[in-house]
Amino acid sequence: MTGNIIETGSETPMDSPAKYRVYPSAENFVKFESQKNPVSVPPNSITVSDLKLWYGPVQALKGITLNIPKNCVYSFIGPSGCGKSTFLRTMNRMNDMVPNCKIEGKVMVDGHDIYEKGVDVVDLRKRVGMVFQKANPFPMSIYDNVAYGPRIHGVPKKELDGIVENALRRAALWDEVKDRLKTSALSLSGGQQQRLCIARTLAVSPEIILFDEPCSALDPISTGKIEELMTELKSDYTIVVVTHNMQQAARVSDYTAFFLSGELIEAGETIEIFENPKDIRTEEYITGRFG
Ligand SMILES: Nc1ncnc2c1ncn2[C@@H]1O[C@H](COP(=O)(O)OP(=O)(O)OP(=O)(O)O)[C@@H](O)[C@H]1O
């Protein structure tokens, strides 16, 4: 088999004990060479190596190395200011818009370095969509909000109805809005607006969806709906979520990473992080002793 051999011995705790992974150039699976009978496992969606980021003189990320597998929910937790959102935003280059922001290291999406010269950032943000803390529907109709992305990407008019319906269904909003698609998105409740923003992201067929504290402004019922949605969506998308809510991380995510002062302290399967953390700082944070 041909492909790039990457040493994985020093990566995060969620990595397999296998010494090498072979990333085939064309095939959509990974084999563990050290096993007698190699098994197929999902490849990584995002691979980050030694990522450092500065806002002017302030270093916000201090050498982060992390693999995010495909088709999982991955939570980032940690106290305020530890760099969770900054790290999330590096994955679709949202920090490009911040003056004096400097980045070193690598962020690979599906094996391609997204900081390489010549990368089309508009296309990147189509593939790596983002849902923000505060729902931000455009001041236009529900329909036009969802159709906005496909329209600017040149999708023909006759395909729009199907795309809008499909995205609203996937975002579990269709039944609530199907009779008022032409009314203003601003007339929706906060929870509905957040699901509309998810539909807007889905409408451009991303591969990865980044959620930056998507439920922090929502009541428990709306929060439950978004959490259910993340669990459903992971079969087709990779989901990365920043959350301050420990229960939410434990409920929705397959993997969790704990950050502190710009460093990745520990990452692995959520059950391990919550039930058997290896670092005392992780334990202290998840048991509420600080943060
Ligand atoms: N645009 C910016 N310009 C300058 N400094 C910034 C900027 N955005 C974030 N920072 C700084 O970078 C550090 C990390 O911030 P970040 O928002 O990533 O943390 P966080 O863990 O997401 O925090 P919170 O949970 O409060 O949202 C903080 O010290 C913050 O003040």
Protein described:
Pfam families: ABC_tran. One of its GO terms (molecular function) is ATP binding. Keywords: ATP-binding, Nucleotide-binding, Transport. This is Phosphate import ATP-binding protein PstB 3. The chain is built from ten helices and 14 strands. With 291 residues, the protein is an alpha/beta fold. It has two domains: 41 residues, no CATH class; 207 residues, P-loop containing nucleotide triphosphate hydrolases (Rossmann fold, 3-Layer(aba) Sandwich), CATH 3.40.50.300. The strands form three sheets. Strands 10-11-12-7-13-14 form a six-stranded mixed beta sheet, with helices on both faces. The longest helix has 14 residues. It is globular. The N terminus is likely disordered. Adenosine-5'-triphosphate binds next to β6 and α1.
Report how far apart the termini are.
48 Å
Look at the structure and give the mean pLDDT.
86
Strand order of the largest sheet: 10-11-12-7-13-14
Within CATH, the superfamily of the largest domain carries the name P-loop containing nucleotide triphosphate hydrolases
The number of helices is 10
Structural class: alpha/beta
Oligomer: single chain
Following the backbone from N to C, one meets helices and strands in this order, namely EEEEEEEHEEHEHHHHEHEHEEHH
Shape field: globular
Please give the number of β-strands.
Answer: 14
> How many structural domains does the protein architecture include?
2
Taking Cα atoms only, what radius of gyration do you get, to the nearest Å? Answer: 20 Å
